[in-house]
Amino acid sequence: MTRARKKLIDLASTSYYHLISRCVRRAFLCGDDKYTGKNFDHRRAWLVERIKLLSSVFAIEIAAYAIMSNHYHLVVNVNRRQALDWSDDEVIERWYQLYNGHVLVDRHLNGEQLDKPSLLFFNEIIAKWRARLYDISWYMKNLNEYIAREANKEDNCTGKYWEGRYKSQALLSETAVLSCMAYVDLNPIRANIADTLEDSDFTSIQERIAHFKAFTTDTVKSNNPLKQKDTVQHESQPAQLKPFGGNHIKGTIPFALLDYIELVDWSGRQIDPKKKGHINKSIPKVLLTLNIEEPQWLESIQRFRQQYSNFAGSKQRLKQQAASNDVKWYKGAG
Q: SS3 string of the chain?
């Protein structure tokens, strides 16, 4: 049953969400289309560039992404506090990067003193724009409409490009965030279109690994000592993705970057032992820290979408969320 979006996006419960959109047409979002013989890989770059642009405007950070042939996955973090702290002028500047303005706002920007009724209306406009700049639905609307227009223009056609509205999962716990990010980053491995994380094109894990390697290479050349892996500097991570850090570092994903990379690599090898490289049987540090059993982790990684519906988390959190939304249960609660 389709649920109202306001029932699925609950920032009081979690700021992390898994978002998915799928193409409606047989023509691919990207990759080789066997029906037309065309290659649409360049459209993957459209999506990556657009999500990064939107995240520089919205108070919505990208934790993970994977751009596949006919769909894409995002794991986002909504930073509502950041949006509420923006000045009115910053809200205006951000809004004007994507949308047309308002004559009243233009008068304010030109230094005109607004009378009391105009000032009240001006404040209402800014409040509306501010709320939309941390709204996932506005973010996804802007992303999908832009890609649809560009693809339709390229295909010289009109009509729907996306299969209905986007799907969302609320990630209610740190474990849900971690396993969903790994699930997203492992999509090319699972689809057997990449052999290693480094070869997983248009994924956040590929971007993080490439950036870290470049950083460490530059550090070695400059003879600066590297820090321990649990205190990796922000400079070693892509600026346009939400950084890893730990619970002790505010504004970061609550895990160490290298622990996450090790975990995803290990999980990928466990899912398909035929892939290249040695299968590391040791359980990564993150699993020990979170007290997750190996079979439980593998089950979560392999069947994340099947295991949960619109909300993902521990049985206790799912039961609490169901009670707060006045429903009997959510899938995954047992």
A: CCCCHHHHCCCCCCCEEEEEEEECCCCCCCCECCCCCCECCHHHHHHHHHHHHHHHHCCEEEEEEEECCCEEEEEEEECHHHHHHCCHHHHHHHHHCCCCCCHHHHHHHCCCCCCHHHHHHHHHHHHHHHHHCCCHHHHHHHHHHHHHHHHHHHHCCCCCCECCCCEEEEECCHHHHHHHHHHHHCHHHHCCCCCCCCCCCCEHHHHHHHHHHHHHHHHHHCCCCCCCHHHCCHHHCCCCCCCECCCCCCCCECCCHHHHHHHHHHHHHHHCCCCCCCCCCCCCHHHHHHCCCHHHHHHHHHCHHHHCCCEECCHHHHHHHHHHCCCCCCCCCC
- The token duo for 206 is 């590929």
CB neighbour class for 318 (10 Å; exposed up to 12, middle 13-18, buried from 19): buried
pLDDT of 268-291, one tens digit each?
877 555 544 333 455 555 556 666
For 143-184, the pLDDT digits (tens) are: 999 998 988 888 788 778 888 789 999 999 999 999 999 999
- Give the CA diameter of the chain: 71
Exposure of 51 in the CB half-sphere (CA atoms within 13 A)? 29
Question: Is the pLDDT assigned to residue 42 strictly greater than 80?
Answer: yes
Pairing of strands 167-171, 60-67: unpaired
Q: Which amino acid makes up residue 298?
A: L
CA 183/CA 187 separation, integer angstroms: 6
At 195, list the tokens: 């052999």
> How many CB atoms within 10 Å of residue 129?
22
Model-wide pTM > 0.90: no
